[in-house]
Amino acid sequence: MKQIVKACLFLFMFMGVSGVSLADEKANETKQGTIRGRIVDASKQILPGASVYIEKLHTGVTSDVNGFYTFSNLDPGTYTVKVTYVGYTPVEMKITIPEGKTLDKDVVLNEGVELQEVVVGGAFHGQRRALSSQKNSLGVTNVVSADQVGKFPDSNIGDALKRISGINVQYDQGEARFGQVRGTSADLSSVTINGNRVPSAEGETRSVQLDLIPSDMIQTIEVNKVVTPDMDADAIGGSINLVTKNSPYKRIIAATAGTGYNWVSGKAALNLGFTYGDRFFNDKLGLMVSASYQNNPAGSDDVEMAYEKNDNGDVVIDEYEVRQYYVTRERQSYSLALDWEINANHRIDFKGIFNNRNDWENRYRHTYKWDDETPNEYEVIYETKSGGPDQRYARLERQRTMDFTLGGEHLFGKLKMDWKASYAQAGEERPHERYLAFKKEGIAMNTDWSDIRRPYMSPADGQDILLNATNSNEFELDELTEQFEDIKEKDLKFSLNFELPLAKGRYANKLKFGAKVVDKDKNKWIDFYEYKPTDEDAFLTDALGHLQNEDRDGYMAGDRYKVGNFVEKEYVGDLNLTDANSFEQETKYDEMCENFEAHETVSAGYLRFDQQLGKKWNLMAGLRLENTHVTYSGYIYDDGKESDKDESFTKTSERSKSYLNVLPSVLLKYDASEDFKVRASFTNTLARPKYANLVPNVIIDKEDIAFGNPELNPTLSYNFDLSAEYYFKSVGLVSAGLFYKKINDFIVDYRQNDYEYKGVTYEEMKQPRNAGDADLFGVEIAYQRDFGFIAPALKCIGFYGNYTYTYSKVKNFNFEGRENEDLRMPGSPEHTANASLYFDKAGFNVRLSYNFASDFIDEVGEEAFYDRYYDKVNYLDLNASYTFGKKLKTTFYAEATNLLNQPLRYYQGTPDRSMQAEYYGVRVNAGFKINF
Less Cβ crowding at N or C end of the chain, within 10 Å? Predict the structure, then answer.
């Protein structure tokens, strides 16, 4: 409470310095007027981030993400208004403000003379929208517009994000899934849709699956690396805001159709898209509907290893796997935007988006497991992953997100108010996920270390370890299981914001304040059953009569890796597991012990004060308060083996925790010139613990024990930023920035050997804990420009590039045995870089794009030997397009991604000790787009 009082005194002190008399303002209220409108270009496309300036008052505003601007608190009279936008000819116009009324004035800008030679569809068009919003932002922001995304071969939002300075992405099945901002893990950043935090479809994390959302469904991507008090504070790395398509200024009709090919699946892909927008009832009602459909059969070749030390201290392979994946990924996305202009002072709008991603996956895996008691002796397992007939005999993973928001903007005299009420939901379903595996024990194996990064194992005595019908008597059933998973998160949100201008002129200022409440329910439930055939010998003979060889020519992990024979997916899917005469069912509680129910409420309020200090300086000071209350319940599981008791599975009582975070911020911007901007800031942000980490569960399984931790504290960060940007007249910029984050209470999975619990000693204990603090320092540089400054003939060639360096050091590490080691923060790559060289002329566009990120520690083990690292990546993509026509603008495109066949690779301890190498191959796509 004291902090709030101090903040209010600080704000009112500023008001006094600025010479604001509230009584005088009230006396003039009936006389003052307002101007509102929208900034568009000659083709009636909206222009976000336009600068609207009134010279007489020495003050200005910026158009929002949908092109709208508002000037209130204006005395009646005539003013000269200047509107500027990167790459467009500035417009000056005289406007007469009526007494006590609101004037509705839209502004149309024309392309600058330098750009008129660029035919429609050029690379510059998307850059202008991005750079204008970036240029006029108070904080450090990177903006990518939809047409700019279209210049890269990016099928989902994650792939588009990796082109932005300071962002790295982690992959799943060849597509970007999670985004990491400024050297922080994905858990330390937020993803929002239209300013609202997106719920996660997965149960273990708060991170949002970016591969759920097709890139063609988003109007703008905003990466806010410095958050302001009116934004959610859970954004230590930054906040990634996805702005869905807004209702248009004029009629829009667009369609896309394409196909593609991947060499693993050997099947064709299908990509479709459609957008329609218009205005009705004298332009009072705006409508925009969009749909996207993608069906991409693909797959991967994967080898995985885990390492241990034997009694002599030698490194041996503890587990060795060769896998073949076939995955068909289907994405469906639908969005709707409506807005109703009640009058010049009042507007309401609705935005909704629904995303569905179906992954049909078959996995064929053979595994060698080391018997810890016998040197070089292994167990061999062949496993088929399948699903029921209704799931195409594949494991179906269905992930969905949806967000529906009703909001309004209202102007009451000079007081501006906006509000939003939204419902969001995310979930993951896995029905009838089945595994059938057979094993053979006591196999002596040799390990070939000649290629140390790709070790190879083979039988030492020439035994036949291939699963086949002739050696069925040598194999036995390892597992026959079926799993049902249902994860859901439901969010209700309501926010209310007020903005009040207080003074005009060179020292203009305004006060913004508001509140937000977010109410979340998160549930994870898995049912898991194991089945035992009533006649195991007959079942074994029958199953091994349905074998199929899954070796694939050109296996990318290496020709010597052979997957082998497996029971056909159709046989596994057609098994009638509910037939009690054929199978005995057992509930596997050890697979269900991570189920949980959670409820979380976050109540926030903020004050933000913006002060103009002459023509060149802008200051913002603010304070945000966020109160978090969370209630969790989970399960306690004990297999009873170590304590000589019966197996038990019981629900825990509810555990609750509440905490308040007081988060100050100060931002400063210096406009050295129209084209040179300098920014500095201090902000305080946080990251709440993962859902699964907070569950108060206890899991005792064989010789290991694991705990949840409902007492976890959120991770806090104190952030300092300094940056400078220079914008070229010919559309482009050069920028450099420094940032420092003092991060407290970051969270890792703590591990301890020989842990005693209730009188029993367990070999290993695992629990998420606040492990310590860290310092993170970074440098960002970016450059983008065409080469016309060298010679006019080179204007059609340009370069886009950025590089980020981050250095992190862990302090006060609360991890027994590793307190004094020199460690970096998990999830923090040291180097990330993007480079793109493009040619753009007469509608023809070619772009070669490169993306790099260095390796980083992903998971901390009980000692350095067990640390898991995400290896460095090098991605090279090529795309080309040709655009022609004006009234019917048509684009033909072709693209090839992952030209270097970059694998997803993890290593254990050192780069030569491969844990996983998963290859996806090159993907090609081609098609056309039409804009009416």
Answer: N
Residue position matching structure tokens 């991005």: 130
CA atoms of 634 and 179, how far apart (whole Å): 29
Residue type, 880: A
Q: For position 686, what pLDDT does the model report? A: 96
Choose among 277, 398, 427: nearest CA to 328. 398
pLDDT at 373: 72
Label each residue of 28-67 as H, E or C.
HCCCCEEEEEEEEECCCCECCCCEEEEHHHCEEEECCCCC
Torsion of CA 277, 281, 285, 289, to 10 degrees: -20
* Cβ neighbours of 265 (radius 10 Å): 18
The pLDDT, as a whole number, for residue 829 is 92
Residues facing residue 479 across a β-bridge: 437
* Amino acid present at 632: Y
- Laid out side by side, the sheet with 141-145 consists of 141-145, 218-224, 239-244, 190-193, 196-197
Contact call for residues 174 and 715 (beta carbons, < 8 A): no
φ/ψ (deg, to 5) at 816: -55, 125
pLDDT value, residue 25: 41
For the chain, which ranges sit under pLDDT 50? 1-29, 113-124
| Integer Cα distance of 605 and 626 in angstroms | 7
DSSP assignment of 686-716: EEPPPHHHH---EEEETTEEEE--TTPPPEE
Return the closest-CA partner of residue 562 out of 549, 551, 553, 571.
551
What span, in angstroms and rounded, lies between the C-alpha atoms of 248 and 337?
9
pLDDT attached to residue 117: 41
Separation of alpha carbons 162 and 128, rounded Å: 20
pTM of the model: 0.89
Place of tokens 């304590």: 643
Q: Which of 740, 875, 852 is nearest to 182 (CA)?
A: 740
**Which H/E stretch holds residue 830?**
none
Query: What pLDDT shows up at residue 127?
Result: 65
Joined tokens for residue 911: 């780069």
pLDDT digits (tens, 9 = 90+) for 586-596: 999 999 999 99
Q: How many CB atoms lie within 10 A of CB 13?
A: 11
Instruction: Determine the residue type at 496.
Output: L
What token pair was written down for 758?
Answer: 């209730």
Q: How far apart are CA 436 and CA 384, in angstroms?
A: 5
Helices first, then strands: H and E counts in the chain:
8, 50
For 447, residues 6+ apart whose C-beta sits below 8 A from its C-beta are 316, 317, 455, 456, 457
Question: Nearest Cα to 134, choosing from 250, 11, 50?
Answer: 50
Host H or E run for residue 118: none
Domains of the chain from N-terminus onward: 31-115 (2.60.40.1120), 244-931 (2.40.170.20)
- The DSSP secondary structure of 428-479, one letter per residue, reads EEEEEEEEEEEEEEEEEEEEE-SSTTS-EEEETT----S--GGGGGG-EEEE
In tens, the pLDDT along 185-235 reads 888 999 899 888 889 998 888 888 888 888 888 888 888 999 999 999 999
Q: How wide is the angle at C-alpha 17 spanned by C-alphas 11 and 18, nearest 5°?
A: 90
CA 443 to chain centre: 44
What pLDDT score was predicted for residue 646?
84
CB 198 within 8 A of CB 426: yes
Helical H runs in 552-670?
A: 569-574
Alpha helices of 86-218 — where are they, by DSSP H? Answer: 123-135, 146-149, 157-161
Q: Name the helix (H) or strand (E) containing 260.
A: strand 252-262
- Cα–chain center distance at 336: 22
Instruction: Give residue 152's pLDDT.
Output: 63
| Cα 441-444-450 angle, rounded to 5 deg | 130
As a whole number of angstroms, the distance between CA 574 and CA 593 comes to: 28
End-to-end CA distance of the chain: 57
CB atoms within 10 A of CB 890: 15
